[in-house]
Hints:
The chain is of the alpha+beta class.
Amino acid sequence: MTPQHRDPEPLTPADQSLTLDRWLKREAVLRTRLRGPGLCAPEQFMSRSGLGAFEAMFTGEIPQPPISHTLKFLLVEAGFGRAVYQGRPLFEHYNPLGSVHGGWIATLLDSAVACAVHTTLPQGKVYRTVEFKVNCVRPLTDQVPLVRAIGTTVHVGNRIASADGQLIGPDGTLYAHASSTCVIFDPDS
């Protein structure tokens, strides 16, 4: 029998406010250091480990990917096997039914799970997503001030890696979850 996810006990309004404040402060600090959107030369990534590339992004040495600017989200944490993106669900992200489009949700989650895999790569390796699945479990609206997509690796081998992710609000509410499989290879192959 597979264990089921249960939403955590609701946080008190004070705890929700503290979490939101912590998330906003982290974003403000990062925005003072980060470069605007752009592309890097391949050697800027290939000369570093996966985690080293994200560390260079946090210092402004490597630009943020253009998609982050377009969809209003930001990488806020990266550690070995873990990546966290933060975004603001906005009216401009709505579908015709009056909630945030699943594509916006999927993009945040895809970024988190794929980058969790990326953080584990040694220098000189690259990856591509070969399978991605998302489950939206409750509607997301612009009444939620921020969400975080948290990706963590499940398995990293020589050629195949997998990761899971969750999209949560500052009160701990789960809005969606995802899984991904990536292939790892040498860039010349």
